[in-house]
């Protein structure tokens, strides 16, 4: 006889992994028209460049996973995180960071039990007391926001951004 609880755990992890794989695929597709020559483009002075937006998305994937399991919760060193992102000048380097962050995220799904994902986040200003699993919707929303911004960057560069949901 099938162990229903074990099957439910497997399905939950498969759903999380699928959601995160789709998030990455949509982000990659939405930004595919940008190339290394577009790394330094920003719509105006002071805004993140194309490379920096991708780096910020990568950094945030890491930030959510680290913060979800850190006893103190999420880092609030936004100045330090901003400096780290603003140092990125290469779209290729930013994409490599995003790939690495998403691989770490996928590993984290498997590394933690269903009970750990359902446990409450530490109290605090960032999603305090919600179940850890809430970070997955936040990650999806965050990357969707930034792939939308990068679609605008792409159009401002005179390029046509690809439709992110095609060819799945």
Automatic annotation (TrEMBL):
Signal peptide: none annotated. InterPro entries: DinB-like (IPR024775), DinB/YfiT-like (IPR034660). It holds the Pfam family DinB_2. It comes from Paludibaculum fermentans. This is DinB family protein. Coiled coil: none annotated. Residues 25-148 form the DinB-like domain.
